[in-house]
Amino acid sequence: MNQLDRLPSIFISHGSPTFAIDAGRAGPQLAALGQRLPRPAAVLVLSPHWITRGVRVTTSTAPETIHDFGGFPEALYRIEYPAPGSPGHATRALELLDADGWQPAADERRGLDHGAWVPLLHLFPHAQVPVIQVSMPHDLDAAGALRLGRTLAPLAGEGVLIVGSGSITHNLREVRWDNSDPGTSYAGEFVAWARHAVDTHDEAALVDYLQSAPHARRAHPTPDHYLPLPFAFGAADKAAPVQVIDGGMTFGVLAMDSYVFGATAP
Fold this sequence. Notes:
This protein has ten helices and ten strands. By secondary structure, the protein is an alpha/beta fold. The protein has one domain: LigB-like (Protocatechuate 4,5-dioxygenase, Chain B, 3-Layer(aba) Sandwich). The strands form three sheets. Strands 5-2-6-1-10-7 form a six-stranded mixed sheet, with helices on both faces. Strands 3-4 form a two-stranded parallel sheet. A two-stranded antiparallel ribbon has the order 8-9.
């Protein structure tokens, strides 16, 4: 793997589906990251847009591009991300999950939802890297997300790039689609807390975010878009260096920060 013992894991804020056609500040930085990374054998993505009972893993050889959103510009519905699947790596993920008691199931029909293909459109724009998805159990909490990342962590040493795709802040009730200033700093305060937590490898804070983070319930009225963060953190080596990608703030309250856990070049 180009002199790296293991690939890093990444948390990506995927924001609105419009991120696919409006790269903003975050898109070029993800594209640059994709250039710096050793070529993965596959990408494994946890997205909040596939929530199931128990854990499922995609095993399709050619996953479809799912346009799982409504009311957006027509151009978004014409985008295809024709990355191949990787049944071999999916089988390995299923083995790791089963060995750790997750009782996973294979899913031959599931494609790639926008939590997967939208950020990957920037990271690997030519769709040349195989992609598999792991679902988010409906009863997952932050401690469980951390454990799920640790269960799948051996894949990082086998050429698989592990990605948690969510959003560092995600209160859709307060989104300003005209990008006007909402007149509040709560989202920025939560972002600052998250950056400090990942920079200091503060596992306890990341797990107990509802108590340790400012405005946690306002930044995340539901946990689904937060959980990919402890997932990606758990998939990394505990001593891994951390890179913060400052993606700025979109639509008033949707922060676009991403975090890379581990080295990106030899």
